[in-house]
Amino acid sequence: MNRLSAVAFGLIVQTSACDTQRNDALNEQGAERGGARVPADSLVASAPGGIEVWFTLSRDAKAADGTACTDRTMEIRRGGARIPVPLLYTGTAPELLDDTTIRARLSNQCVPGDAYLVDLRTGRPVRER
Description:
By secondary structure, this protein is of the alpha+beta class. Helix content is 21%, strand content 49%. The longest helix is centred in the first third of the chain and has 27 residues, at 3-29. The model is unreliable at 4-29 (pLDDT under 50).
């Protein structure tokens, strides 16, 4: 690699590291997306064994009467592991049922829907019967 290539590579690596730090900081503080404020990740529940449930992604929604709300996805964090809870947007904090299960209510366009039991070990949601 010639000297110019090495310098260019070094600049790319530094810029990439800065972008990663900036994205991490924005994720903790919230960010702008299309002029709208994106909520920061927020802790919503804790369970024994160092398990934490966080709101992560969000989508803006409107109820039939025009009232605005934000639906959020969840992520289970334990140590360095992050387990996303798939396909479950909710408008309310989940309820801790026991050491391995939370109950979360599905939300769509600000309307609460079915309740789901989420396994804190796998992140798998199952509709509550």
